[in-house]
Write a structure and sequence with these properties.
The protein is an alpha/beta fold and 261 residues long. 37% of the residues lie in helices and 8% in strands. It is globular and about 55 Å long.
């Protein structure tokens, strides 16, 4: 039997209960979408999901304390991994599967009158914009939006080098959130990414999926060398606060009148 004295957090749906839910008019649901994949030598496979849970939980707390009735749904731990199928346990969820999953979640929310959903994306291989275009047309009763957390704030000014996978940002966040899951610094890979030979790819006006074991040396992309827990704490506070502000503003907004005139 648990001896924890912590009360269920009403904004965390997995923790709360029917007594709380039936008495609350929730205004915004948040669905964190993570991944299960290699993160350099030193970070856990669940890095994207651990970050999602921590950021959404804290943003939910702040929003709730400001009066916004937010509902943080359980994190989905699988993302699009079609460029990493040769790496063990990089569990792939195809975009078509994600679309079906989102459709079912939205149907469940619409059925009980939840008016707004935020898809919180923690994995660079997933992209929900086109899915939400299709689903918004199908489900006009609910307002759909998505947030990819690196787009909230890049971390420039906090971090020395910005990469895009198991880099200084992610390593610092994990040193803050779950230091017990980060291997000692002497085990860290350098996160060197191998550039495309194709000039258009180098200039980023053409795009193709990266073959991850060819594009990286250690599955990382961006050096983690200067990572610290202190940087992670500073960045986490910034991300959570800005996400909370969006949730508060969205909760109060009239979804039929969202444009300045």
């Amino acid at each position: 039997m648990s001896t924890s004295s912590s009360a269920p957090r009403p904004w965390i749906i997995a923790e709360t209960n029917w007594k709380q839910v039936q008495s609350t008019k929730y205004e915004v649901a948040v669905l964190p979408m993570g991944a299960t994949e290699a993160h350099n030598w030193h970070l856990p496979y669940g890095t994207d999901s651990f970050q999602n849970v921590a950021l959404c939980s804290e943003a939910g707390r702040q929003a709730w304390e400001q009066g916004a009735k937010v509902a943080i749904l359980p994190n989905i731990p699988f993302g699009v991994q079609t460029g990493q199928l040769d790496i063990p346990f990089c569990i792939n969820m195809n975009p078509s599967t994600q679309l079906a999953l989102l459709n079912d979640v939205i149907a469940s929310l619409v059925g009980v009158g939840i008016p707004k959903l935020v898809v919180f994306n923690g994995h660079g291989g997933s992209d929900f914009k086109q899915m939400l275009r299709e689903l918004q047309a199908k489900w006009p009763q609910i307002f759909l939006s998505t947030v990819f957390w690196p787009n909230i704030d890049s971390g420039a000014g906090i971090f020395d080098v910005l990469g895009d996978h198991a880099d200084e940002r992610e390593t610092s966040l994990m040193l803050h959130f779950h230091p017990e899951l980060v291997l000692p610094k002497e085990t860290w890979g350098d996160g060197k990414a191998n550039a495309w030979k194709l000039q258009a790819m180098k200039e980023k006006w053409a795009w193709a999926q990266r073959a991850w074991t060819q594009a990286t040396q250690d599955t990382g992309s961006g050096t983690p060398a200067a990572s610290t827990a202190e940087k992670g704490a500073q960045y986490a506070a910034l991300l959570s606060s800005r996400l909370a502000s969006y949730l508060v503003e969205l909760a109060a907004a009239d979804a039929t009148d969202l444009y300045e005139r």
